[in-house]
Amino acid sequence: MKLGRLNHIGVATPSIADSVAYYREVMGATSITEAFDLPEQGVKVCFVDTPGHDGTAGTQVELIEPLGPDSTLAGFLAKNPLGGQHHVCFEVPDIEAARAHFEGLGKRILGPTRIGAHGTPIFFLHPRDMMGQLTEIMETPKGAH
Ligand SMILES: CC[C@@H](C(=O)O)C(=O)SCCNC(=O)CCNC(=O)[C@H](O)C(C)(C)COP(=O)(O)OP(=O)(O)OC[C@H]1O[C@@H](n2cnc3c(N)ncnc32)[C@H](O)[C@@H]1OP(=O)(O)O
Ligand SMILES: [Co+2]
């Protein structure tokens, strides 16, 4: 498998509204998407754009807020009440080839491959098998380069 672009860094937050204000007012972000719910992932999500050098899309910050007490983020926010860096997400050209690659290495894959916030297939790898980082793998959107 060949490592692709760092698509986003997932940042857990107890309040997307507060985090959006922080990225605008403190970090000078000028492009932030509208928040939307992803019930199947148990999160509300929005993206902070960071500009690339040559007009290409930069890596995004993915702000994620739990949708309810059963959200997968609940345990993380109980341990980190202010929120913070939650996962890293790398693109790959072929999600099934990537899944087979990690399975072959004995890495624990957390659940089935599903459709993520960018509309392409994703899966997660257990942080204890990934040098302490919860790692999301996503298939590169069609037409992206
Ligand atoms: C917006 C949609 C989508 C996208 O398209 O981008 C998303 O990104 S959704 C993001 C949210 N979804 C997920 O995180 C799904 C995968 N996550 C999980 O399955 C679980 O969160 C988890 C990683 C298995 C942790 O579950 P939890 O119930 O919190 O278990 P523990 O508390 O027992 O943790 C086990 C172990 O792992 C350490 N840990 C937990 N979370 C993280 C983390 N974010 N980063 C690094 N390490 C983490 C935790 O400290 C425990 O360690 P040990 O005690 O040493 O075992
Ligand atoms: Co993500």
TrEMBL record:
Q: Which family does it belong to?
A: Belongs to the methylmalonyl-CoA epimerase family.
Q: Which Pfam families match?
A: Glyoxalase_4
GO BP annotations, alphabetical order: L-methylmalonyl-CoA metabolic process
| NCBIfam families given in the database record | metmalonyl_epim
Matching entries from InterPro entries are given as: Glyas_Bleomycin-R_OHBP_Dase, MeMalonyl-CoA_epimerase, MMCE/EMCE_epimerase, VOC_core
User: VOC domain spans which residues?
Assistant: 5-140
- Asked if the record carries the keyword GTP-binding, the reply is no
| Biological classification of the source | Bacteria, Pseudomonadati, Pseudomonadota, Alphaproteobacteria, Sphingomonadales
Tell me a Gene Ontology molecular-function term this record carries: methylmalonyl-CoA epimerase activity
Parts of the chain that traverse the membrane: none
Q: Keyword set for this entry?
A: Isomerase, Metal-binding
Write down the EC number: 5.1.99.1
Stated name of the protein: Methylmalonyl-CoA epimerase
